[in-house]
C-alpha cells in the first residue's frame, strides 16, 4: 500500500475510535511520525491536507522544516538534549518530551532570546519503564509547579510513551492514568498551565488511546511503513 492509502486507513480508524468514544473527529490530531523517512514521502501526503508531522531528532526536524512548506506543524516528540534546544524552540509547534526542570529552563532561555512562547508537554513515564525517559507520576506536580513559573513557556498538557505490547488493551490503564493526572493538574489552576493536550497512543494502540481521551496520536509505522534504523 502507498503512504496515502496507509494514511487514509489510519484516518478511518481514528474516526471510528472517536465515534466509539462519543467524540468529535476534530478533537484528535493525527501526527504522521516521519522520523527517518525522506521528504518525498511527506510530500506524498500534502495533497491529503496532512499538516502535522512528528520528528525525533532536532537536526532532521530543522532540515525538513527548511525544505517543506511553512504551513506544516512540526512536533518534536523525541528526547531533547539541552544543547539542541536553541535550534528548535521557534520551529516546533509543540515540544512533547520535556521531563526535567533543567531542560525547561533551557527552553525558557532560548524562547526569550527568540521572543517566542514555547508550547510544551510534560513527558510522564506512567509505566515506570527503566529504559524510557519521562518523569515519574510522583514527581509530576512539583515539576509542573516549578516550570509554570518560567517565562516564555506554556505547559499545554501531558505526553506518554506506553510499552510495546501485542494487545493494545494492556495499555488502556496507562492512558486512563494520564487522563486522570491531567484532570488533577487542571484542578490546581496553575498559571501558564492548561491541560488541553494529551499526547498518547502510537501505531499499535492509538485507537485505545483515543477511546481514553488522547487529543494527539503519534502514528509512524502505520502510515510510513517499517523503519530501517541501519541507514
TrEMBL record:
Cofactor(s) named in the record: pyridoxal 5'-phosphate
GO MF entries: pyridoxal phosphate binding
Pfam families: Ala_racemase_N (PF01168)
Segments passing through the bilayer: none
Superkingdom to which the source organism belongs: Bacteria
Family in the record: Belongs to the pyridoxal phosphate-binding protein YggS/PROSC family.
Keywords linked to the UniProt accession: Pyridoxal phosphate
Gene3D superfamilies: Alanine racemase (3.20.20.10)
The Alanine racemase N-terminal domain, residue ranges: 12-227
Family annotation (InterPro entries): Ala_racemase_N, PLP-binding_barrel, PyrdxlP_homeostasis
N6-(pyridoxal phosphate)lysine modified-residue sites: 35
Protein's name according to its UniProt entry: Pyridoxal phosphate homeostasis protein
Native source organism of the sequence: Blautia hansenii DSM 20583
UniProt function note: Pyridoxal 5'-phosphate (PLP)-binding protein, which is involved in PLP homeostasis.
CDD domains reported in the protein's UniProt record: PLPDE_III_YBL036c_like
Amino acid at each position: 500500500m502507498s503512504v496515502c492509502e496507509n494514511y487514509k486507513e489510519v484516518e478511518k480508524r481514528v474516526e471510528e475510535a472517536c465515534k466509539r468514544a462519543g467524540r468529535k473527529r476534530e478533537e484528535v490530531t493525527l501526527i504522521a511520525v516521519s522520523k527517518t523517512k525522506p521528504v518525498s514521502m511527506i510530500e506524498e501526503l500534502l495533497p491529503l491536507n496532512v499538516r502535522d508531522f512528528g520528528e525525533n531528532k532536532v537536526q532532521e526536524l530543522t532540515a525538513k522544516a527548511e525544505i517543506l512548506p511553512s504551513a506544516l506543524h512540526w512536533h518534536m516528540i523525541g528526547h531533547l538534549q539541552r544543547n539542541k534546544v536553541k535550534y528548535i524552540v521557534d520551529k516546533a509547534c509543540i515540544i512533547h518530551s520535556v521531563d526535567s526542570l533543567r531542560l525547561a529552563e533551557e527552553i525558557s532561555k532560548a524562547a526569550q532570546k527568540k521572543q517566542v512562547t514555547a508550547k510544551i508537554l510534560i513527558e510522564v513515564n506512567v509505566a515506570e519503564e527503566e529504559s524510557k525517559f519521562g518523569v515519574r507520576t510522583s514527581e509530576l506536580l512539583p515539576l509542573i509547579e516549578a516550570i509554570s513559573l518560567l517565562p516564555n513557556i506554556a505547559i499545554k498538557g501531558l505526553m506518554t510513551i506506553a510499552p510495546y505490547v501485542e494487545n493494545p488493551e494492556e495499555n488502556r490503564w496507562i492512558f486512563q492514568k494520564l487522563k486522570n493526572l491531567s484532570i488533577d493538574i487542571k484542578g490546581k489552576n496553575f498559571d501558564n498551565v492548561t491541560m488541553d493536550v494529551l499526547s498518547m497512543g502510537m501505531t499499535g494502540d492509538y485507537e485505545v488511546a483515543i477511546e481514553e481521551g488522547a487529543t494527539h496520536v503519534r502514528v509512524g509505522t502505520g502510515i510510513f511503513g517499517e523503519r530501517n534504523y541501519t541507514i
